[in-house]
Write a structure and sequence with these properties.
Layout: H1 4-9, H2 11-18, H3 28-63, H4 69-101, E1 120-125, H5 138-144, E2 148-149, H6 150-157, E3 163-164, H7 167-185, E4 189-191, E5 196-198, H8 199-205, E6 227-229, H9 233-238, E7 245-247, E8 253-262, E9 281-291, H10 296-313, E10 318-322, E11 334-342, E12 347-358, H11 360-365, E13 368-370, E14 378-379, E15 381-386
Parallel strand pairs: 4-8, 7-13
Antiparallel strand pairs: 1-10, 2-3, 5-6, 8-9, 9-15, 10-11, 11-12, 12-15, 13-14
Helix pairs in contact: 3-4
């Protein structure tokens, strides 16, 4: 969520930044609500002060046996006025929060405007394999070697599901184990989070309310809390410290999690998106960091380098791309994709995505830290990164965020 102070202070600057990823920006209702809220808040404070004065005067009158009925009547009228003002204050606050929650993050100054056509390749590693006239695509290879059973996967779960079999299942598990071991030995805390999350988790991550339809929701009965299947472990990890204020000595917190991921989105019928390229369920290892603002740039470069090194250790030719504003998750200020070249379909596919949300998610999650000797708490900066190959060979895109 954006800081209202930024919009209040320089709406033109924020508008210019957001136009990198939005076609139209209009802060008129937000600014009007903000003015209304502050006016009402001043009025409420004034009436509360008046109520306190009347309360003191009533107490003094009673202490000396003086008739206090007139003062009590005035106090009752003030209470009625406060109640009325508080209703307006609550209404303005709720609407203001609703509008702010719909705004995307402000893109970093480095981020190019527009869509994927403006993505910028910043690094290439290794030599691109020569194209083969008789290359076999990933679906045919997996079928021929008995690595994946697509037909029976569809029988079990419907379109967008598959079954890893034999050496395919062993390879899947070996890759996941490799990623986990690499991060664990470097001091990242290993976490296995719940797969069922509450609405608050999706909101804090910036995925709800705008993109609620991108996840699988559980049917609930009666007063049971709404839950959904996690689309990525990022959504769970982020919320671990929701509504908490940490000591600065606790930061940075570096962790990773393995989880299956569940998404309603599915692949197209294009050749490069058949098989395991996209699907409703896939396995992923996710890195995450909670840091102070001044640590964030270093954390970003560390996460990028970790993802790149995994590809290098596997001997895979890749490129690192800075995503344009409209091609990245709108909750993120800056995103880099690591894309591997797949010769059989003659294209690059994303295998890892590293992003910096600045304090956007922390504001939604009410997640702060306090420096030594400081009374005022500050918002934490959050960063996440796919920890290497995702099990469907690549992730289609990060789940979109409001």
């Amino acid at each position: 969520m954006l800081d209202i102070n930024l919009i209040r202070k320089d709406p033109d600057k924020v508008t210019s930044a957001l136009l990198k990823r939005m076609d139209h920006v209009d802060f008129s209702e937000i600014l009007e609500l903000d003015r209304s809220y502050r006016t009402l808040l001043t009025a409420v404070d004034a009436e509360r002060a008046k109520r306190n004065e009347l309360s003191r005067a009533t107490g003094k009158a009673r202490a000396i046996g003086k008739d206090s009925s007139e003062l009590e009547a005035l106090a009752s009228a003030v209470n009625d006025k406060i109640a009325q003002l508080e209703l307006g204050l609550s209404s303005a606050d709720n609407r203001l929060e609703e509008l702010l929650a719909q705004l995307p993050n402000i893109p970093d100054e480095r981020v190019p405007p527009g869509g994927k056509e403006n993505n910028q390749v910043i690094k290439v590693w290794g030599n691109k394999p020569e194209p083969l006239s008789n290359a076999i695509d990933h679906v045919a290879i997996c079928r021929r070697l008995g690595l994946i059973d697509y037909d029976r996967g569809t029988k079990l779960g419907g379109s967008g599901f598959w079954i890893y079999t034999g050496l395919g299942a062993a390879l899947e598990w070996a890759l996941l184990d490799y990623f986990c071991r690499e991060h664990f030995k470097d001091g990242y805390q290993f976490m296995l989070t719940p797969h069922l999350l509450t609405y608050e988790c999706g909101f804090a991550a910036g995925q709800f309310p705008k993109f609620e339809d991108d996840v699988f929701h559980l049917r609930t009965d009666g007063n049971e809390r709404e839950r959904f299947l996690l689309p990525t472990a990022e959504t769970a990890i982020l919320n671990i410290y929701r509504d908490e204020t940490l000591d600065v000595d606790q930061l940075p917190i570096k962790c990773f999690a393995y989880s299956p991921c569940y998404r309603r989105e599915s692949g197209s019928y294009r050749t490069e998106e058949r098989g395991t390229i996209r699907g409703h369920q896939f396995n992923k290892v996710e890195m995450f960091q909670f840091v102070t603002p001044e640590e964030a740039e270093t954390a970003l470069q560390e996460l990028i380098r970790r993802a790149e090194k995994l590809m290098e250790d596997l001997g895979l030719h890749y490129r690192t791309t800075m995503l344009a504003a409209k091609d990245a998750s709108s909750a993120m200020a800056l995103t880099y994709d690591i894309e591997v070249w797949i010769p059989s379909i003659n294209t690059y596919k994303e295998v890892s995505s590293v992003s910096w949300a600045r304090d956007y998610q922390a504001r939604r999650a009410n997640m702060r830290f306090r420096r030594k000797g400081k009374k005022q708490a500050e918002y934490i900066h959050t960063l996440n990164g796919s920890a290497g190959f995702e099990s469907r060979y690549c992730e289609s895109k990060p789940i979109r965020s409001s």
